[in-house]
C-alpha cells in the first residue's frame, strides 16, 4: 500500500523518463552548476582551499561589524543628546527621530542579505525539484521498488514540498515582519507590535510543522545509518541546538544522518562535492549569523541606554535574521540528504 | 566649580525676582526673562564642546541621522525655554501653542529621514 | 556670567516700584503709569541684545 502510494505521488508530480545509468552523471552535472566548478576545486590543493575559505569568512565578518559599530555610535550619541534635553515631554518626538536614524542605518544591509538568501534558496529549490523526474524515471525503469527506494521517494517529495512552502510562504512573511517591525517602532502603536508577534509566530509554526515532517520521514529511514555517539558529536549537537533558532533541536537530531550523508557524498563524488556545498552555503550562513549577533547586541545596547523603542526594533530585525538562518540550515540539510539518497539509490539500485 | 557659580546666581536672582514680583508683576517677568537668557548663554558656552564632540563622532561614523537629532534637540531646548517663561507669566495657552510648534518643527526636520525609511520599507514589501 | 545685568534690571525695577508708589500716593496716577512704561522699555532694550545673542548661539551650536 505504501509503495503504491509513493509511486502514485511521484508519477503525479513530474513524469520524466531518464535511464537509471545516467543518474550519477546527472547528479554530477547539477552539482557543477553552482559558482565554482568541481574541477577547479580538485585542481586546487588543500591548504590553498583552506586559505580561500578563511578569506571568505573574514570578508563576511566585515559588514556586520561595521553595522554594529555604526548603530552603537548612533545609539550612544542619541542617548547623550536625549539626556541633554529638558523635560520628559520631549522624549517622544526625539526618540522618534533617533529611531528613524537608527533604523535607516540598520535596514540598509538587510536588503541585499534577503535578496541573496532568496536567490540561494531558489537555486536549491530548482536543484531539489530537478531530482524528481530523475527519480520517477528510476522508479519506472526499476519495476520492483525496494524499501529504500520508497523511502527516498517520500523524502524527495517532502523535500520539494518544504522548499516550495518556504520560498513562497515563509520568505514573504519574513519581509512583511521586518517592514511591520520598523513601522511599528516608528509610530509606537500597540496593535502593530502585536501584528509583528503574530507574524513571527506564524513563520515559526510553519518551520516547526516542516521540521516535524522532516523528523518523521527521517525516523523511518534505514538507508543512512546513524553514527555512534562520540564526544565531538555530542558537542556539535549541543552547539546546534542552542545556536540555531527555531529548528535547533531538529538540526541536532538530524546531525547524525547529515554527517553520514556527507560521508556518502565524499565517497562517491569526492571532496569536490563537499567543497562546492561549503562554498554555496557557508559564507551566507556566517554572514547571517554575524548579523544576528550584531542586531541582538545593538538591541541590548539601545535598551541599556533607555531607548526602548529602538531596542525593540533592533530585536525584531535580529529575530528576522534568526529566521533566515533557520531557513538556510534547513535547506542545507535537505540538499545534503537528498543528494546522498539519490546517489545511494543510483548506486544501490 | 561651575555648579556653585550657577547655583549662587540662580538663588540671588530668585530672591530679587520674588521681591519685585509683589510690587510690579510685569517687572518680575522681565527680570525672570533676563535671568533665563543670561543663564542659558552661560550654559550653552559650557555645553558647546560636548555637542561639537558628539557631532565629530557622528561624522566619524558617517551618520546622516545624527544631525537631525542635534537639530531636534536644539528646537526642543528653545521651545521648552519659551514654554516655561510663558507658564511663569501665567499664559499656559501660549505655552501650549509653543509646544505644538516645537513638535511640528521637529517632525518637519525629520521629514527626509521619514522619506528614506518609507522608501526602504516599500522596497522590502515588494 | 553677566550677573550685573540681572542686578541692573532688579535695581531699575525697585526704583520704578518706589516711584510708582510715590506718584500714586501723591495722586498723579497717569504719571505713575508712564514711569512704569518707561522703565519697562529701558529694561527691554537692555534685554533685546542678550536675547538675540542667545538665539544666534543656539542656532550656531545646534546647526539649525
UniProtKB/TrEMBL annotation, chain C:
NCBIfam families: spore_III_AC. The chain crosses the membrane at residues 6-24, 36-58. This is Stage III sporulation protein AC. The keyword DNA repair does not apply. InterPro entries: Spore_III_AC, Spore_III_AC/AD. It comes from the Bacteria. Keywords: Membrane, Transmembrane, Transmembrane helix.
Amino acid at each position: 500500500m505504501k509503495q503504491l502510494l509513493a509511486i502514485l505521488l511521484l508519477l503525479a508530480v513530474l513524469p520524466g523518463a531518464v535511464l537509471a545509468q545516467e543518474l550519477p552523471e546527472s547528479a554530477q552535472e547539477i552539482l557543477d552548476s553552482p559558482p565554482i566548478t568541481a574541477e577547479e576545486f580538485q585542481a586546487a590543493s588543500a591548504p590553498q582551499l583552506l586559505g580561500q575559505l578563511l578569506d571568505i569568512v573574514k570578508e563576511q565578518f566585515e559588514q556586520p561589524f561595521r553595522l554594529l559599530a555604526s548603530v552603537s555610535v548612533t545609539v550612544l550619541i542619541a542617548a547623550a543628546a536625549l539626556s541633554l534635553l529638558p523635560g520628559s515631554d520631549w522624549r517622544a518626538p526625539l526618540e522618534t527621530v533617533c529611531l528613524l536614524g537608527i533604523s535607516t542605518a540598520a535596514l540598509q544591509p538587510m536588503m541585499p542579505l534577503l535578496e541573496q538568501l532568496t536567490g540561494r534558496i531558489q537555486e536549491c529549490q530548482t536543484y531539489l525539484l530537478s531530482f524528481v523526474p530523475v527519480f520517477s524515471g528510476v522508479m519506472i525503469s526499476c519495476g520492483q521498488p525496494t524499501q529504500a527506494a520508497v523511502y527516498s521517494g517520500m523524502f524527495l517529495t517532502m523535500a520539494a514540498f518544504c522548499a516550495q512552502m518556504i520560498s513562497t510562504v515563509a520568505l514573504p512573511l519574513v519581509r512583511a515582519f521586518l517592514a511591520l517591525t520598523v513601522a511599528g517602532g516608528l509610530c509606537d502603536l500597540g496593535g502593530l507590535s502585536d501584528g509583528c508577534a503574530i507574524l513571527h509566530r506564524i513563520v515559526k509554526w510553519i518551520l516547526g510543522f516542516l521540521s516535524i515532517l522532516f523528523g518523521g520521514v527521517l525516523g523511518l529511514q534505514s538507508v543512512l545509518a546513524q553514527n555512534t555517539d562520540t564526544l565531538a558529536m555530542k558537542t556539535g549537537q549541543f552547539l546546534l541546538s542552542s545556536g540555531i533558532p527555531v529548528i535547533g533541536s531538529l538540526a541536532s537530531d538530524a546531525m547524525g544522518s547529515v554527517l553520514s550523508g556527507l560521508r556518502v557524498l565524499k565517497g562517491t563524488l569526492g571532496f569536490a562535492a563537499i567543497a562546492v556545498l561549503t562554498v554555496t552555503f557557508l559564507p551566507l550562513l556566517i554572514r547571517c549569523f554575524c548579523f544576528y549577533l550584531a542586531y541582538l547586541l545593538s538591541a541590548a545596547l539601545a535598551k541599556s541606554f533607555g531607548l526602548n523603542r529602538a531596542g525593540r526594533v533592533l530585536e525584531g530585525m535580529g529575530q528576522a535574521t534568526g529566521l533566515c538562518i533557520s531557513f538556510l540550515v534547513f535547506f542545507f540539510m535537505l540538499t545534503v540528504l537528498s543528494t546522498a539518497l539519490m546517489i545511494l539509490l543510483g548506486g544501490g539500485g | 566649580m561651575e555648579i556653585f557659580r550657577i547655583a549662587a546666581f540662580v538663588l540671588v536672582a530668585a530672591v530679587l525676582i520674588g521681591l519685585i514680583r509683589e510690587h510690579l508683576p510685569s517687572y518680575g517677568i522681565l527680570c525672570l526673562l533676563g535671568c533665563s537668557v543670561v543663564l542659558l548663554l552661560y550654559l550653552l558656552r559650557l555645553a558647546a564642546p560636548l555637542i561639537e564632540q558628539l557631532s565629530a563622532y557622528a561624522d566619524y561614523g558617517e551618520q546622516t541621522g545624527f544631525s537631525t537629532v542635534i537639530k531636534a534637540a536644539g528646537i526642543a531646548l528653545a521651545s521648552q525655554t519659551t514654554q516655561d517663561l510663558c507658564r511663569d507669566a501665567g499664559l499656559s495657552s501660549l505655552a501650549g501653542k509653543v509646544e505644538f510648534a516645537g513638535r511640528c518643527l521637529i517632525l518637519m526636520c525629520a521629514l527626509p529621514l521619514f522619506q528614506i525609511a518609507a522608501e526602504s520599507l516599500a522596497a522590502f514589501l515588494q | 556670567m553677566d550677573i550685573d545685568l540681572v542686578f541692573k534690571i532688579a535695581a531699575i525695577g525697585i526704583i520704578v516700584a518706589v516711584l510708582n508708589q510715590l506718584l500714586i500716593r501723591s495722586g498723579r496716577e497717569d504719571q505713575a503709569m508712564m514711569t512704569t512704561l518707561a522703565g519697562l522699555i529701558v529694561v527691554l532694550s537692555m534685554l533685546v541684545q542678550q536675547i538675540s545673542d542667545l538665539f544666534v548661539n543656539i542656532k550656531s551650536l545646534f546647526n539649525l
